[in-house]
Amino acid sequence: MNGSSADDAPQPPKVLNTPLEIAxxxxxxxxxxxxxxxxxxxxxQRFQSYLxxxxxxxxVLALDEMIPRDGERFLANGEPFRVEGFHDGVRxxxxxxxxxxIVDVDGQRLYRGSLPTEVVYHxxxxxxxxxxxxxxLVDVEIGGDRIKFTLSGKLLDISATGCKLRFExxxxxxxxxxxxxxxxxxxxxxGDMTAPVELRHLHFEERVNTTFAGVRFHNMSGLVQRxxxxxxxxxxxxxxxxxxxxxx
Length: 248
Description:
It is a single chain. This protein is 20% helix and 43% strand. The chain is an alpha+beta fold. Residues 1-9 and 243-248 have low confidence and may be disordered. The protein contains 4 helices and 17 strands.
């Protein structure tokens, strides 16, 4: 097996248990504004949140208001929950069974508690997520029966299972989490790719007047799968070439 295919093999999960490692990895999720999925034990519903505070010295962690907000009920009841986020293809997850404080800070709802004592860090190279350079962002469209007007945006990154998108302005009220949109089009360099997608993450960043969305490909045909794999491979190869250039 050559070095590159060994690098691409899925890595076994690691358990981080030092405060320094835990805080450093949670800070990655915080600074990149990576969406988190929260699930409560014994319940099937999933909730979205974001890390908004990680303080190692004070042993403090704060989560943003859950979407939908009815997850707050379970939190208030002290029900144990799991938090899962992804950063550059790495799964970062932890469990919490402690009571968190529900507080309002300047009109912002948040949940504050202690840093976890263990975090699972899982590098999953088999779903390599390729980021596009700003100069070569691909045009995308989302349309279908569930949406009034077709939305046009840009593709930020892509993996074999889904992609991250960017739209100008606040379009968060025009899309719905968990909804499948049957007409997603990406204008790839070698031709258009059309597939249904499920909306997994949605966030409007007021500071830059931009909406970010994460979608998962839904019931992909073999043809679309091959198009995605070809494009990811092309980006992966370019990234490796630039990495080699940086060594000199």
